[in-house]
Input
Amino acid sequence: GAFDEAVKSDPPFEWVIHTASPFHFNITDTKKDLLDPAIIGTTGILKAIKKSAPSVKRVIITSSFAAVFSPKIGNRPGYTYSEKDWNPTTEEEAIQDPPSGYRASKTFAEKAAWEFVEKEKPNFTVSTMNPPMVFGPIHPKLQTLETLNTSNQRIRDMMLGKMQDELPAAAVYVWVDVRDLALAHIRAAERPDAAGKRFFVTAGYYSNKELADNIREQLPDRASKIATKGGEFPEGGMSHQINFTEPRSMSGTPEKAFADDFVGYFEYDNSRTKDILGVNFRSVKDMVKDTIPTLQAIGA
Output
């Protein structure tokens, strides 16, 4: 009942956007620190809305690509991930290590939300956002570099010269700008045809090398402190160089067919996000350009 009073309002409101869920690996108990907050937090607010906020018509939940992706299968060249996919993780696998626990927490929490809708038949609809890595300008209220979101920490570390020898490989090679993700949440609440759907919100591919190249371009005085080695796409992933200044996707113009260029990694289908929510994704270049000043403002 933690949300029972929080959802009461005069005047009443029609939307709830539930974004809170732990994403960090500094934990001691996977169930207590990751699984329970995600699952109970999600089901708790849905129960509270049904009980105490009858005016609510739309609930938008921030899930994750972690609830879509199947890490055990690997890079899956030629396979196309979309909203139809679910991470097949089990409760036993969830407690093996923090990364598995995080992926499971997002998967179980989202499944719990859809199960709630099916069983409880509330007066509101649910839509879920399934973003991968989230980069972009930080909120002005964020005051320290230590409290950055997990994805943005790699940009911080590159800027601070903590990756001078070699860039690590990315954990996953798809991303989205936080501003595009925020817009997707709002559009999902506004547009009736978004109700009852998942959305794989991604701009396309990126690599840590691409991040580093763009940071060096924006901060030439720090270029010598950012590694040029490593951070590439998976071995065999790229057959030839392409234009890295535009978002990449499976099809469209200027985002031409990518299958022949990127043969060693899975493909993705973000057409639902584009078609229903009308999101036009920012490029890696623009994201880095806009993110750097916000990190410099708090000491990067």
